[in-house]
UniProtKB/TrEMBL annotation:
InterPro entries: DUF8199, HYC_CC_PP. This is Uncharacterized protein. It holds the Pfam family DUF8199. It comes from the Bacteria. NCBIfam families: HYC_CC_PP. The lineage of its organism: Bacteria, Pseudomonadati, Bacteroidota, Flavobacteriia, Flavobacteriales. It comes from Flagellimonas ochracea.
Length: 121
């Protein structure tokens, strides 16, 4: 999130007759090939151009100095609670918990596998 908000992005588009032919994020957009044909016919159609290039830049933010006192009380409480619970996930346990420690297994009166004749092969 920090990378996306601080980097400036430039998007170039090549339009031919009002339709988007190519979009490029890091370099110039490729033309559709009509410009070479227009150069050959430059005598006849000097004012009627069918291709157009557009580009716009999204500037990233430069001021990243955020202090603790710029946050509201609710945001501070949330950040403290979130960081505390996140850090508690990585605390090692002294002993692994036993899920059935207080509940002993049932007493087997009959062998169910032999009665139903179900055997693992």
């Amino acid at each position: 999130m920090l990378l996306l908000s601080t980097v400036s992005w430039t998007v170039d588009k090549h339009l031919c007759m009002g339709r988007v032919m190519d979009v490029s994020f890091f370099m110039d957009a490729e033309d559709c090939g009509m410009e070479a044909a227009m150069d050959a016919m430059s005598d006849q159609l000097t004012q009627n151009q069918c291709c157009d290039n557009e580009s716009f830049t999204v500037t990233g933010q430069d001021d990243l100095k955020l202090t603790w006192f710029d946050l509201d009380l609710e945001h501070r409480i949330f950040l403290i609670a979130f960081s505390q619970t996140y850090l508690e996930l990585f605390v090692p346990l002294k002993e692994l918990p036993v899920s059935n420690e207080k509940y002993p297994p049932p007493i087997l009166v009959k062998d169910i596998h032999v009665l139903d004749q179900v055997f693992l092969i």
